[in-house]
Amino acid sequence: MKLAIDALIEGIERMGNPTAVGLDTQLAHLPEGFAGKVESFADAADALLRYNKALVDALCGIVPCAKVQIAYYEMYGVPGMQAFRETIDYAKAKGMVVIADAKRNDIGATASAYANAYLGETPLGEKADSAFPVDFVTVNAYLGLDGVEPFRKASAVRGGGIFALVKTSNPSGVQLQDLKIGERTVYEVMGDLVSEWGKDCIGEHGYSSIGAVVGATYPEQGAALRQRLPHTFFLVPGYGAQGATGKDLRGCFDAQGRGAVVNASRSILTAWRKQPGVDFAQAAYNEAVRMREDIMEGIRA
Amino acid sequence: MKLAIDALIEGIERMGNPTAVGLDTQLAHLPEGFAGKVESFADAADALLRYNKALVDALCGIVPCAKVQIAYYEMYGVPGMQAFRETIDYAKAKGMVVIADAKRNDIGATASAYANAYLGETPLGEKADSAFPVDFVTVNAYLGLDGVEPFRKASAVRGGGIFALVKTSNPSGVQLQDLKIGERTVYEVMGDLVSEWGKDCIGEHGYSSIGAVVGATYPEQGAALRQRLPHTFFLVPGYGAQGATGKDLRGCFDAQGRGAVVNASRSILTAWRKQPGVDFAQAAYNEAVRMREDIMEGIRA
Tens of pLDDT along A199-237? Predict the structure, then answer.
């Protein structure tokens, strides 16, 4: 079975592009008139899904991965969750590696329910079905290994993986994550746990199915974590709208220019705003090309 | 506006019962024949919803609160989410205080999306609607204050609140939570942050809308946290199937016997197994009465 981590690395190599488009789509991101009159959750969900499909069509040839932030679908209730499901199915069908950014976390049987929902299958008598089948799901590991183990187990179903929060991109992440436990920060302790948990599921390119979220907004810490966790692949948010640029990312990659996938959401979703007269999907494509150049230049520097 | 934390405390006083029923309903919990033939997510969701409604009918007169674990609905995809929504609506309509156990967490705009989904309203042009309207949602605060602030803000819409994970009930919670940051453990640091975040939204009974999850399986730590966080209400999982009993809970309550709500899921959902010949809803009622006595005895001891 092909591991999702290997498929992700190969997609990145094939396209020369270690990036993910973040489908954190919101109504405010859509060009005027695109959504039509929105009076219900179903109206909103329909507009988001149409926008996502157009973006996937435009980007699937040059961006290997889509990260879909479930919060923006959950907030539209049941119709929103339907749009989430159709978005991930569409991106998968177009060959993209799909990450559900859900930051799910719980213990024991409950963590198993989440793991089945995203990476495995939910039993139905003698049959089974998949609720929201993706390649990766993000996980918050504050609850320790028994919150992670069910995801590791479920990943055996289709070869999927997880990205556990280690060092997040937001300013107040430091309130807990940067405090010192002996010689190590909390995020280093978390990183070491993630590395340990992932050591038995390393793929053919040297990276584990258990990856880490490491924010681009802290370049020095990212570089130190790259050294510390040689087999842990990084999902790197914070590029673009959150302020990080290509040169901030160098440290998240290994000597071969591998080891991370960088996400950008708003800068791609709303690229049309900075390209007057250009169609939104074409504008997103142009921004994805610019981002690839910026990041590849940063990596080579 | 009535705060949910005050409504919860008053419900507990009125029924003399500081407990919540955990509607972590799974097919395996249902008596044989109840579900009928389950061949799809819709079949499963239909059975769970019917079971939940019967339990709410049986319990709403003696149990003031329902905690609904969303993972067990998410795993049935879109039909599962519909059953989740109908379950919370039904429990609310029957007068119960409803907690969505979702452990959601993210930063900035994304945390706002979750906060709107559970505690606030999602904007729809000039209108707005609520995705999954509950009184409380559980939150994982590993990302720090800017992951919590949006929930605090959204709580102004209907007076809702949150319970942030502090000390979880599972064995490997200790992997991170019990490590020392200077003189304090990670969970004490988290508890202090939660207390600080909640100090401006204390209700009329002295407890804040920002509460904490404190597992019943660590009675000494629970008692120490009760002393440390006098304005922080505790949601206490781990009673029953996870091993804690009434006497383990004493320390989670203050001198007036207030300050916590204790959740039990499996022991109530599957009470019919230990009461042969008794209808499942009646069995759940009987177990809820037994639990109330056990806990009240523990508190008075």
Answer: 999 999 999 999 999 999 999 999 999 999 999 999 999
Q: What angle do CA B88, B89, B91 make, to 5 degrees?
A: 65
CA triplet A152, A125, B88: central angle to 5 degrees? 80
User: Known catalytic residue: A103?
Assistant: yes
DSSP structure class, residue B257: S
Contact assessment for residue A19 and residue A261, using Cβ atoms and an 8 Å cutoff: yes
Q: How far apart are CA B215 and CA B251, in angstroms?
A: 12
Cβ of A147 within 8 Å of Cβ of B85? The answer is: no
| Residue numbers in chain B where pLDDT is lower than 50 | none
Tell the burial category of A254 from Cβ atoms under 10 Å away from its Cβ (0-12, 13-18, 19+).
middle
| Cβ-Cβ contacts under 8 Å, B147 against chain A | 170, 172
A200: exposed, middle or buried (Cβ count in 10 Å: 0-12, 13-18, 19+): exposed
Give me A181's structure tokens: 């436990």
All residues of chain B having their beta carbon less than 8 Å from the beta carbon of residue A181 are 179-181, 186
pLDDT of A24 above 90: yes
d(CA B77, CA A213): 25
How far is residue B99's CA from residue B136's CA, in Å, rounded to a whole number? 5
Nearest alpha-carbon partner for A166 in A85, A229, A79, A122: A229
Q: Which of residues 108-137 of B touch A (CB under 8 A)?
A: 108-111, 113-114, 116-117, 122, 124-125, 127, 129-132
Q: Could you read off the pLDDT of A74-86 as tens digits, one per residue?
A: 999 999 999 999 9
Mean pLDDT of A128-144: 96
| Structural contact between residues B168 and A143, judged by C-beta atoms closer than 8 angstroms | yes
Q: What is the pLDDT of residue A238?
A: 87
**Contact residues, A window 59-98, toward B, CB-based 8 Å cutoff:** 69, 71-72, 74-78, 80-82, 85
- Do residues B87 and B68 make contact, with C-beta atoms less than 8 angstroms apart? yes
Q: Give CA–CA dist A22/A69, Å, rounded.
A: 7
- Which tokens hold the place of B56? 């709410």
Q: How far apart are CA B147 and CA B166, in angstroms?
A: 15
Alpha-carbon span B162 to B142, nearest angstrom: 14
Per-residue model confidence (pLDDT) at position A42: 98
Residue A217 to residue A239: CA distance in whole angstroms: 8
Residues of A in contact with B39 (CB under 8 A): 124-125, 127
pLDDT exceeds cutoff 80 at A181: yes
Residue B137's SS3 state is strand
Searching chain B, which residue's CA lies closest to the CA of residue A186? B176
Contact A138, A163 (CB under 8 A): yes
Tell me the residue ranges of DSSP E strands in chain B: 19-22, 65-69, 97-104, 122-124, 127-129, 136-139, 161-167, 180-181, 184-185, 210-214, 234-236, 260-264
Token pair recorded at residue A245:
């640029």
Rounded to whole angstroms, the Cα distance separating B105 from A238 reads 16
Measured in degrees and rounded to the nearest 5, phi and psi for residue A45 equal: -60, -40
B183 in contact with chain A, both atoms CB, cutoff 8 A: no
Q: What is the mean pLDDT of residues A180-200?
A: 95
